[in-house]
């Protein structure tokens, strides 16, 4: 046989392909809406999906045209690569001591007020060099990719000076250049008022006039986030900040309603792409997010890390919201960082359908990042794919995150 003359590759056969295609943009999803193709394959060309079809049909085409074959020899289920739309994985140091204090009864906010919490990670991240941050971030990306996360948002926010925020974003940019995972950077200089500043409004003004222009100029991020909470920034100053960032062309996302409400109203008013956390949200907040088309991103890893209740995901779906689930992987409130496990646990506790949970970490997570080229297995999408060693896709959530993908492709290349 002649060698392949094209770089088209047929991957398969898969026992099942769960395409996550053609799902409703928001609101509940019945499991019947999931498209599950049996004995199917994927034809990939230049990093994108060209065809998703019955394997026999694709094999005929591939043999005729002498395409390359990547044979799958065991029963496997194929899905789109997972998307983690909210993380803080660029950091130095560990907050294991905070965690021990928390489980022994001290609250997250109490620890923060006493110099622990976010500012402890700020101190350690400021001390780290770009090279050290790159190394730490790269290791976390290796783990995420091996667990099926092919796109991952990463926030700054442990620098809180112009130079240290730029240093974090540079580290994210460097890892993104050299790692197979796609990183989506977000500026979270508005994570907390830094200790050097006494006036949070003046600090935010400085971020707008000094830091954001440099981020723009250097192309380091196109998204801006803020933590709206009593211990961080208040609603009024947050809205001003977000509108100024929006005016500069940044997309907006918000840490909202984690402990108290208010943030989701600002997210809706500022026209944010997503509002994240939402543990404290109720009917009123859900209605506001719905009216403004804001994606609701819930973070079960923060609930698990803080030993608190989950965000009301079921209510959010029934209220018509587009629900995404992300890890919030960070050194403080969410040290675990296992997206599939956390989604499975939240789904079980909140009574989400399999379709709703899987959509929240694929197709709907893509919406939370305003990405249209990924999140489903269909023609034209990036060939970001993961395969689980099972013949039945229901095993994936049933095993609550312990069944991991054993094959991961980024843009058609197995990694
Ligand atoms: O999303 N809520 C604020 N920020 C992070 C926690 C960061 C930290 O504790 O270091 C969060 O949970
Ligand atoms: Fe967060």
Automatic annotation (TrEMBL):
GO molecular function per UniProt: imidazolonepropionase activity
Domain Amidohydrolase-related: 77-415
The enzyme's E.C. designation: 3.5.2.7
Keywords: Histidine metabolism, Hydrolase, Iron, Metal-binding, Zinc
Pfam families xrefs: Amidohydro_1
Lineage: superkingdom: Bacteria
Pathway assigned in UniProt: Amino-acid degradation
InterPro entries per the UniProt record, alphabetical: Amidohydro-rel (IPR006680), HutI (IPR005920), Metal-dep_hydrolase_composite (IPR011059), Metal_Hydrolase (IPR032466)
UniProt cross-references to NCBIfam families, sorted A to Z: hutI
Protein name: Imidazolonepropionase
Organism: Pontibacter aquaedesilientis
Lineage of source species: Bacteria, Pseudomonadati, Bacteroidota, Cytophagia, Cytophagales
């Amino acid at each position: 046989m002649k060698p392949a003359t094209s770089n088209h590759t047929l991957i398969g056969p898969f026992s099942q392909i769960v395409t996550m295609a053609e799902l409703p943009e928001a609101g509940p999803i019945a499991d019947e809406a999931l498209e599950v193709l049996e004995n199917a394959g994927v034809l990939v060309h230049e990093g994108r999906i060209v065809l998703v079809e019955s394997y026999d049909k694709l094999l005929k085409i591939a043999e005729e045209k002498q395409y390359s074959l990547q044979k799958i020899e065991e029963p496997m289920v194929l899905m789109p690569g997972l998307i983690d739309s909210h993380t803080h994985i660029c950091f130095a140091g560990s907050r294991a001591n905070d965690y021990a204090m928390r489980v022994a009864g001290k609250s997250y906010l109490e620890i923060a007020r006493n110099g622990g919490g976010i500012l402890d990670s700020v101190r350690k991240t400021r001390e780290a060099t770009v090279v050290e941050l790159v190394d730490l971030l790269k290791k976390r990306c290796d783990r995420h990719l091996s667990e099926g996360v092919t796109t991952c948002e990463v926030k700054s926010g442990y620098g809180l000076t112009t130079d240290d925020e730029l240093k974090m974003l540079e580290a994210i940019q460097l890892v993104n250049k050299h790692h197979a995972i796609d990183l989506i950077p977000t500026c979270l200089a508005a994570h907390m008022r830094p200790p050097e500043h006494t006036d949070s409004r003046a600090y935010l003004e400085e971020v707008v006039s000094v830091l954001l222009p440099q981020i723009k100029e250097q192309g380091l991020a196109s998204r801006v986030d803020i933590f709206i909470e009593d211990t961080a920034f208040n609603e009024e100053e947050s809205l001003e900040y977000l509108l100024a960032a929006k005016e500069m062309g940044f997309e907006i996302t918000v840490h909202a309603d984690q402990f108290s409400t208010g943030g989701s109203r600002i997210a809706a008013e500022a026209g944010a792409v997503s509002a994240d956390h939402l543990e404290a949200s109720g009917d009123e907040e859900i209605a506001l997010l719905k009216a403004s088309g804001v994606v609701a991103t819930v973070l079960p890893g923060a609930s698990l890390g803080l030993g608190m209740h989950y965000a009301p995901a079921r209510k959010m779906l029934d209220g018509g919201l587009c629900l995404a689930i992300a890890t919030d992987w960070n050194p403080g409130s969410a040290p675990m960082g296992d997206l599939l496990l956390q989604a499975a646990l939240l789904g079980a506790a909140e009574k989400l359908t399999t379709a709703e949970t899987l959509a929240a970490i694929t197709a709907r997570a893509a919406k939370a990042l305003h990405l249209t080229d990924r999140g489903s297995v269909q023609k034209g999408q990036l060939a970001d794919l993961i395969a689980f060693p099972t013949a039945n896709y229901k095993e994936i959530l049933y095993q609550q995150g312990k069944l991991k993908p054993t094959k991961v492709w980024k843009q058609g290349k197995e990694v």
